[in-house]
Design goal:
By secondary structure, the protein is of the alpha+beta class. It is built from 22 helices and 8 strands.
Length: 454
C-alpha cells in the first residue's frame, strides 16, 4: 500500500568517538602556537586549571623509552618564580602577536560542517582537505584513496564537488587542466572558447597547435590566440594567495639534536606551552566536603574537563615525538647531508602503529628544528625516483632541479618537458617526460606554451 509505514533494519559500520577521543583529535591537529592560544582560553574559562609555575618551558623535553611516564602531570623541572614570570611574559607576547586568521584547510572544514548535507559527506570532505597540497591540488587517485579510507564513492564524489565549488577558485583539482576549468566556471565562462579548448583540445594547447585548435573549434587563429591569453591569466597555484603575505612565525614542536654519543635523537621543545595541573586547593575542597551539592557538582565537572585536556595534550606530545623519531629512523641521510629519501605517511603509520590519517593530522602545520633550519614535517614525506647509482632520490629534490632549470630558461624559447627531462638526465636524475609534466604541475609551473613571452 502506497504511503504505508514500514520497518526495516540495516547494518552500518561506523565510529562513534567519545568526548575524550574528540578532544584528543582536536588537540593533535593544533600547531604549537594555536595550541598555546587554546590552552590560554581553557585557563580563562576553567578555574580549576592552573599553570604549574615550577615547570620550565624553555628546557626541551627529552623523552625516554616510556613517553607516557615522561609526560606525567607533575613536572620534573623547576625554575625560580621570577624567571617563570619572565617566561610567561615572553610566551604571552608571542601568542598575542599572532593573528587568529584561520588556515585554508580549517576555513574549508568549518564551512563544510555547516553546508554539507550529511555528516558522512562532511567527513569525506575533511579527508579531501587533509590531502590538499600547498597549491590547493589533490592527488590524481584521491577518490580511490578516499574509498580505501572507508568513505563511500557517493560521499567522496559529493565532497569533491563541494570542494571544487569552494573558494579560492581552482582548489580541489587533480591536475592543472581541471583547475583551469574550475576557475573559468567560477567566472561564468563555461561557454567561452577558452573553456572549450581546455575541455576538447588540451593536448593541442600543450603543443600550441593554434592552427589545429582553430580548425577543430571552427574559429579564427586570432580568436584562439586571445583564448589562450585568457587561459594564461589563470592561477596555476590557486591556494598560494590565501592568507597574509607576511611571513609566518614558525615555532618548532620538535628539535633534532646529537646526544653525548654523537647519535641523532629528537625531543620536544615545549615552547609556548605552559604546563597545566588541577588546582590542589579545589581538589582539597572536594575531598573535605566543604562545598554544597551544586558547587561540588560544578567543580567535579571542571576537574574532569581539565584532566581530559591534560591527557589530550600528553597524547599529542607522545604521538608527535613517536612520529618524529620514526622520521629520523627512515631519513638518517637528511640529518647528515640533507638528502631526503622516498617516504610516505603510510610508512610512518606502520612504524608507530597508527592510521595514516592520524599521522597526517599530527604533522599538519607542525615543524621541526633540524641542522638545515626549521622544516615543516610534511616536507619529509615524498615519493621518489631512481638516480644513475640505482638509489632512491626524493621527488622534492627532482622538483627543485626542475624549478632551477625553468628559472634559467630563455623566456622567448621555454623548454619542453622532454628537454627538461634531458637536462635532469645530465644531472644523473632519471625522470621521464610524463614525470616532469606531473612535477611541473605540482610546482605550479605552467606548460611551455603558456610560459612563452614575446
Amino acid at each position: 500500500m502506497d504511503g504505508a509505514l514500514q520497518n526495516s533494519q540495516r547494518i552500518e559500520q561506523g565510529l562513534n568517538l567519545t568526548p575524550a577521543q574528540k578532544r584528543s583529535l582536536e588537540i593533535l591537529q593544533k600547531p604549537v602556537l594555536e595550541l598555546g592560544r587554546y590552552i590560554q582560553q581553557q585557563l580563562n574559562t576553567n578555574p580549576i586549571l592552573e599553570v604549574d609555575e615550577s615547570y620550565d618551558t624553555q628546557k626541551p623535553e627529552t623523552v625516554g623509552e616510556n613517553p607516557d611516564e615522561d609526560f606525567a602531570e607533575e613536572a620534573s623541572y623547576t625554575t625560580p618564580k621570577s624567571e617563570a614570570a619572565q617566561e610567561q611574559a615572553r610566551r604571552d607576547f608571542i601568542l598575542n602577536s599572532q593573528t587568529d586568521k584561520p588556515r585554508l584547510g580549517e576555513d574549508l572544514i568549518k564551512e563544510a560542517r555547516i553546508d554539507a548535507p550529511t555528516k558522512k559527506i562532511a567527513d569525506a570532505f575533511e579527508f579531501l582537505v587533509e590531502n590538499l597540497d600547498e597549491r590547493g591540488f589533490l592527488p590524481e587517485d584521491i577518490l580511490e584513496q578516499a574509498k580505501a579510507a572507508g568513505h563511500s564513492s557517493e560521499d567522496a564524489d559529493a565532497a569533491l564537488e563541494m570542494l571544487q565549488k569552494s573558494p579560492p577558485a581552482g582548489i580541489g583539482a587533480r591536475n592543472l587542466r581541471e583547475s583551469f576549468m574550475i576557475q573559468l566556471r567560477a567566472k561564468g565562462m563555461e561557454e567561452t572558447l577558452a573553456y572549450r579548448i581546455l575541455a576538447d583540445c588540451y593536448q593541442l594547447l600543450l603543443k600550441r597547435r593554434v592552427d589545429k585548435i582553430a580548425q577543430a573549434e571552427c574559429r579564427s587563429v586570432d580568436d584562439v590566440e586571445r583564448a589562450i591569453d585568457e587561459i594564461a591569466k589563470l592561477n596555476p597555484s590557486p591556494a598560494s594567495d590565501y592568507g597574509d603575505d607576511e611571513p609566518q612565525l614558525l615555532i618548532p614542536d620538535v628539535e633534532y639534536y646529537k646526544d653525548e654519543s654523537g647519535n641523532w635523537d629528537a625531543r620536544l621543545t615545549n615552547q609556548c606551552l605552559p604546563k597545566l595541573r588541577i588546582s590542589p586547593e579545589y581538589r582539597q575542597m572536594v575531598a573535605d566536603g566543604e562545598l554544597d551539592t551544586q558547587a561540588q557538582s560544578y567543580v567535579r565537572e571542571k576537574i574532569r574537563d581539565g584532566k581530559m585536556l591534560i591527557e589530550a595534550i600528553k597524547q599529542r606530545q607522545t604521538t608527535l615525538l613517536k612520529i618524529a623519531r620514526a622520521i629520523l629512523a627512515r631519513q638518517p641521510r637528511f640529518f647528515e647531508d640533507g638528502t631526503l629519501m622516498p617516504m610516505t605517511r603510510q610508512d610512518i603509520a606502520d612504524d608507530v602503529d597508527l592510521h595514516a590519517t592520524t599521522v597526517g593530522r599530527a604533522i599538519t602545520g607542525k615543524c621541526a628544528d633540524t641542522p638545515y633550519g626549521v622544516v615543516e614535517f610534511k616536507n619529509f614525506f615524498t615519493s621518489g625516483l631512481e638516480n644513475d647509482a640505482g638509489t632512491g632520490v626524493s621527488s622534492n629534490t627532482v622538483k627543485e632541479k626542475i624549478r632551477d632549470i625553468v628559472a634559467g630558461e630563455d623566456p622567448q624559447n621555454p623548454l619542453s618537458d622532454e628537454k627538461i627531462s634531458r637536462e635532469l638526465a645530465r644531472l644523473g636524475l632519471n625522470a621521464a617526460r610524463r614525470t616532469v609534466a606531473k612535477y611541473r604541475e605540482e610546482l605550479g609551473i605552467a606548460p611551455k606554451t603558456l610560459r612563452k613571452r614575446f
